[in-house]
Amino acid sequence: MNSLKEEAENELRLSTAGLEGHLSRHDYLPQLIASREDIERFLANPRIGDAMSVNLLLDSFRSTTDVSDIYLLDRQGITIAASNWHRDDTFLGQNYAFRPYYQDAIAGQPGRFYGLGVRSLDRGYYFSAPVRLDDGDNRPDGVMVVKVPLDQIESSWAEQSAELLVTDKDDIIFMASQPQLRLNALHPLSDEMRETLLATRRYADEPLPHSGLEILENHDTDSLLVRFSQGSLSDQDFLRLSRSLPDFDWQMHILKSLAPVHNAQWQSGLLAGGLYGMVILGGGFGWQRLRLRREREQFAERERQTLAQARDELERHVENRTRDLLESNRRLSDEIDERRRAEANLRQTQDELIQAAKLAVLGQLAAGINHELNQPIAAIRAYAENAQAFLERGRAEAATTNLDQIIELTARMAEISTQLKQFSRKSGEQLTEVSVPACFDYALRLFQARISEAGVDVVHDMPTEGTWVRADPVRLEQVFVNLIGNALQAMADNETPCLKLGVRHDDDDVYISVVDNGPGIDEDSLARIFEPFFTTKSPGNGLGLGLSISSRIIDDLGGRLDADNVSAGGARFLIVLPRAPQPDRTARDTEETTYHG
């Protein structure tokens, strides 16, 4: 019995280590996925167009890490992305707010839970981690969940010479090498306990019958002799040892058959008879002693072989796990490098698109400015011809007056061309304090001809003191030019066009609005207004990139750009940017010099 117990303790120790290692190697995964920028971006604005890419990303992680399912819950516990999005039993749209792993993660702590899936009814172990957005709210905005299957490690138990069971704190057999023992109770459950388990939905609606385990006697303080009154194991007696798994609040049990002990008892009986026979037959004593020594040596050799096999198996497990971890680290490093390259390419493409959009707007502005230049050119020619005539007649004073008019007209033309030159310049890399009213003034100067020709009434609603934000002045001017240009085009058929430019602020943010009294934006277009290449304009009047680029610029500056309709008619675009302190006089003069060229 002592040898059998020692063998059982060794097997139980290795089995618990294997189970803990199998589950714990996925502990890091939900936090790793939750920290990805594309997951945070989708959770902040879960648009339908981005859902499929997130589903595919989660399915890729599931396939790579060999887990069952990976899914993302929002703050209310509803699944908004899942690796099993394409299956009939998908988790999408399901509410798991009642699960403890959601409750732990939404409280800001990593979560763990085991039980049956509500949709699949498959057993699994769940790891969860909170997903936080950098929005100033300490409460998590979502929960990332990873489900680890248990069938694989149960399959490895079938190769052992003993039966293995795993029970929870309620003595429910959650895992077992014998399939008929799974989801059975070690002891009969009371009605109150059944109601409690049904409320948690840990085991769904399973009946959880009694396993039929009976305790025969206590072998010593930490082992029992047991048998089963039913099932395929009912014709055997077992030695049961238990070991605690404190990290999971489980108990692991091993059942070693007593058949070898019974055989040893019979052998001991025969040995006793032989000893009595040796009293009569003295020669038989030496033979019996030699036989017993040989059996002990064989038993000791078998024990050494068993321990050696267990040690070799443990070393193989450690080597395999180390190799898996190194491979995972390599893949993660490759993915990080690829992500950096992709971000660099994205930044370059974005800058090129912004400059292309500015040049497209520049073409539209050039037509208006060309119209504005025609009159000064015609006047210059007339003044030059008059000056020539006055000089021929000797009237130098009159010729000088005409030349002064020519100089004034050329200065005006230079100011108009400077506006085009300033608008076409590229933005810088560093952010600085930018005056919002000054940016508006610059944008309005670019559209001065169109505003005057269309008779647009421009209404300013701004503080008496300058309002400053931390931004790139060129990119912020680009956004204002796009929004004002769109507003002027929307009011082209309006008899009394009115453009309202508003600025207000609180302690932390500045709110900038551009409102027109055009036809507004229909509801279907509002949902897609910031998508690249989406436009409501007629063919040839736009590429659909202006609002998409403007939204991305504001995002890069740490703000947001929203669009809606006003009740009086027309569209409103609202920019929210972090407020910056007003710079000193020297910096302000430098800023104004930059704006006015």
Task: Give a description of the structure.
The strands form 4 sheets. This protein has a 7-stranded antiparallel β-sheet. A 5-stranded antiparallel β-sheet has the order 2-1-5-4-3. It is α+β, with helices and mostly antiparallel strands and 597 residues long. It has 16 helices and 19 strands. Strand 7 and strand 8 (184-185) form a beta hairpin. The radius of gyration is 40 Å and the shape is elongated. Helix 1 (2-24) runs parallel beside helix 9 (282-392), helix 9 (282-392) packs antiparallel against helix 10 (396-423) and helix 9 (282-392) packs across helix 15 (546-556).
What is the subunit arrangement here?
A: single chain
Strand order of the largest sheet: 8-7-6-12-11-10-9
Strand content: 15-25%
The geometry reads as elongated
Averaged pLDDT: 83
Helix tally equals: 16
**Helix vs. strand class:** alpha+beta
Unreliable stretches (pLDDT < 50, length at least 5) are: 587-597
User: Portion of residues in helices?
Assistant: 40-55%
